[in-house]
Design brief:
single chain; 685 residues; alpha+beta; C8orf32 fold; Immunoglobulin-like; 4 domains; five-stranded antiparallel β-sheet; globular; disordered N terminus
Length: 685
């Protein structure tokens, strides 16, 4: 059976990946288009080639060349800029769709009579400003066409769509981001546009800025520790990280002054014997957020370029957890970290005071940006949806459906004639589905998904477990394609099959999936694409596919991000799934309990919690190479004990607490070693 499954996946892989081998042959009569085809092919991983339809790539090249030939500025753009910032078929990690013909048809007549790229770019921006609102959401990026359908999105999603629009009319544009601010929580992204003066200029589409080099965040640019962009092969950029298919570039010194931080890890007199992971972190969101990471050896310095500020530098010899050092870098700084103090992980504690730093040079323009036009259609949508489904306007399901946008009515029309029990199940499905996953949902495929889950699920499964870990169409942050019934068809079917037997079969399927090198920013893919191509970019992708296989067979399952583990529920017990263990792939999970109490806050115990998780404090688990924040299993506030309670996988954790004492912020960090079935209480000031 194992060999049959592997052969089945290889056939799918051959059919999916056979189209892009001779892409340049489609443009044999156009030398420039043929060069474009070769460039794209060289910068697509085998995984991406297997998953992206050939017709999308061919259409993308044709319309790129067409725009270059038709737009007044098209042929004046240097070829390397065109290849990197006009030609690519995707901008970041959004799903790949055929957006270029759509935007070219709607935007070419808006710009073709403009004499400058600046005026043309502002016309494109105004077109988007009248169609899209900013709205925070989860980190999964919508593709440009889905964003237009929804009419709202977070900053990166809006940037992706606007860049697609600009590139569709041959205006070079690129995505720019700050991974974490150093003066406050959160991050941000914007775009840069290449204009007539031969320079890049920034603008912020998510705030509807109408002027270049001016945005709401301009005064805060000195607090951006590092600024990145992405390209395929821009030889003029300062490369931070280069992969086989693309690169991430630093733009920080184009916005503000920078300093050099040189880090030297040491273990007594030993040099060059150990692999050391060095990371530069900032305090953001109640925890340490990594900015840079590099691998070196003891005694060998590694250098980073950042804006002046206070940073927390960590060094670790995997699999041991890191040692921290607090560094205020107002000028070029050399830091030595002694790793001899890492003998007892449970004894580690650390504190750091972060003070605001003034930057000597900042690319700030004092002009006031324009504001977004008012386009609040939510109230009208809520009224119509409320009457349609017979629910009050303030219910969660109406709120969720209204945030999907106008395309929601296509979905409502499809589910209108369902049976009463299916309608109730549809409401539960909507309640656990992120709104953006309903924007482009095929209603008939969604109904097939719903009926499959209804028919396959054991009615004894508790309601909350059924909804969150079986009915829920999303596993982590991957796109939802509603193909769970098709995933089920990949599994062999036997009467009376046990969960243990099913786990072995799923392990055999995962063996047929090969992990290959991908782009640094790979496109978002679904479990169905991973399973049918037989290719994945990481172990995480394989584990997400494993969860989809379990769910397709009616077994509630979850990918626990911070522990990098798959857990499966059966008859009141959660089991850890290990596909490499052929004799016993499922073992009962045993957790530890952690209670965190903050002294001096007793007066708050009878009301709301004194601190907020992932804003004021955070718990992160050491994986052997990095810390991952605990999400999805966040703390439960117990007012009787005045503590936050966690149920966690065993392992090494760092508990970070950020106290705000304006203008300073104080970080307190405590390391915790949690064992199976152990209960620990930590009290912090």
């Amino acid at each position: 059976m194992k060999h049959i499954i592997s052969a089945f996946l290889l056939i799918f892989q051959f059919l999916a990946g056979s189209g892009l081998c001779n892409l340049s042959e489609a443009f044999s009569n156009d030398p420039f288009a043929a060069r474009c085809a070769r460039f794209l092919s060289e910068h697509m991983s085998s995984t991406e080639k297997a998953l992206v339809p050939e017709e999308i790539i061919i259409e993308n090249i044709r319309y790129s060349v067409k725009a270059r030939n038709l737009m007044p500025w098209g042929r004046s753009i240097p070829e390397d800029l065109f290849m990197n910032y006009v030609l690519p078929h995707r901008i970041s990690q959004e799903p790949v769709v055929n957006w270029r013909p759509y935007f070219f048809a709607r935007l070419s007549h808006e710009v073709i009579n403009e004499k400058s790229m600046m005026d043309a770019a502002l016309n494109v921006l105004n077109w988007f400003y009248n169609r899209v609102n900013y709205e925070p959401s989860d980190p999964r990026d919508l593709d440009p066409l889905s964003l237009i359908r929804r009419g709202r999105g977070r900053c990166e999603e809006i940037n992706i769509a606007v860049i697609a629009g600009l590139r569709s009319v041959a205006i070079p544009a690129r995505h720019v981001w700050v991974p974490a601010w150093s003066h406050t929580d959160g991050n941000h992204s914007w775009i840069e546009v290449y204009l007539d003066d031969g320079k890049w200029h920034y603008i912020d589409p998510s705030s509807c800025s109408g002027q270049f080099d001016s945005a709401w965040f301009s005064p805060y640019i000195p607090s951006a520790p590092v600024i990145f962009t992405h390209s395929l092969q821009d030889n003029s950029c300062r490369v931070y990280r280069a992969g086989p298919y693309d690169r991430i570039c630093e733009l920080t010194d184009g916005y503000s002054s920078t300093v050099q931080i040189s880090v030297v890890p040491e273990i007594g007199n030993k040099t060059g014997h150990d692999e050391v992971i060095v990371t530069i972190n900032v305090v953001n969101g109640g925890r340490l957020r990594p900015l840079f990471s590099s691998v070196t050896s003891t005694g060998k310095p590694v250098r980073f370029s950042l804006s002046p500020g206070t940073y927390v530098i960590s060094a670790a010899i995997a699999p041991l957890p890191p040692i921290y050092k607090c560094v205020k870098a107002d000028s070029d700084t050399r830091v030595v970290i002694d790793l001899n103090t890492n003998d007892n992980p449970s004894s580690q504690s650390f504190s750091c005071t972060i003070s605001p730093t003034r930057n000597r040079k900042s690319r700030i323009n004092s002009r006031t940006p324009t504001t977004c036009p008012k386009r609040d259609n939510q109230k009208k949508l809520k009224r119509v949806i409320s009457r349609w489904i017979g629910e009050p306007e303030d219910t969660d399901v109406v709120e969720k459906l209204a945030s999907v946008g106008p395309s929601v009515f296509k979905l409502l029309s499809a589910v209108e004639n369902l049976q009463k029990d299916e309608k109730e199940l549809t409401k539960k499905l909507i309640s656990v589905t992120p709104p953006k996953e309903l924007v482009s949902a095929n209603p008939h495929r969604l109904i097939e998904y719903l009926r499959h889950v209804k028919n396959i699920a054991d009615p004894k499964i508790p309601g909350h477990i059924f909804e969150l870990f079986l009915l829920n169409p999303r596993i982590l942050v991957e796109p939802v394609d509603w193909k769970l019934p098709k995933i089920f068809s990949l599994l062999p079917h036997h009467k009376g099959e046990t969960l243990f037997q099913r786990a072995i079969e799923i392990g055999n399927i995962l063996e047929g999936i090969r992990i290959q090198k991908c782009a640094l920013l790979p496109p978002a893919v679904t479990p169905w694409q991973i399973l049918t191509s037989g290719l994945a970019c990481s172990e995480r992708d394989k584990k997400i596919a494993a969860v989809a296989l379990f769910r397709s067979a009616g077994h509630p399952a979850v990918f626990i991000d911070y522990a990098e583990a798959v857990a499966v529920y059966h008859e009141g017990t959660w089991y850890a799934f290990n596909p490499d263990d052929k004799k016993n792939p499922l073992r009962p999970l045993r957790f530890g309990e952690l209670a965190v109490k903050f002294s001096g806050n007793e007066k708050y115990c009878s009301s709301s919690p004194p601190l907020r998780y992932l804003r004021d404090f955070c718990l992160s688990k050491w994986t052997g190479r990095r810390f991952l924040p605990v999400r999805g299993a966040g703390p439960v506030w117990n007012k009787d004990t005045c503590s936050y309670n966690f149920t966690l996988f065993p392992g090494i954790y760092d508990l970070s607490v950020v106290r705000r004492n304006p203008p300073d912020r104080n970080l307190l960090l405590r390391r915790i070693v949690l064992k199976k079935d152990e209960a620990i209480q930590i009290e912090l000031p």
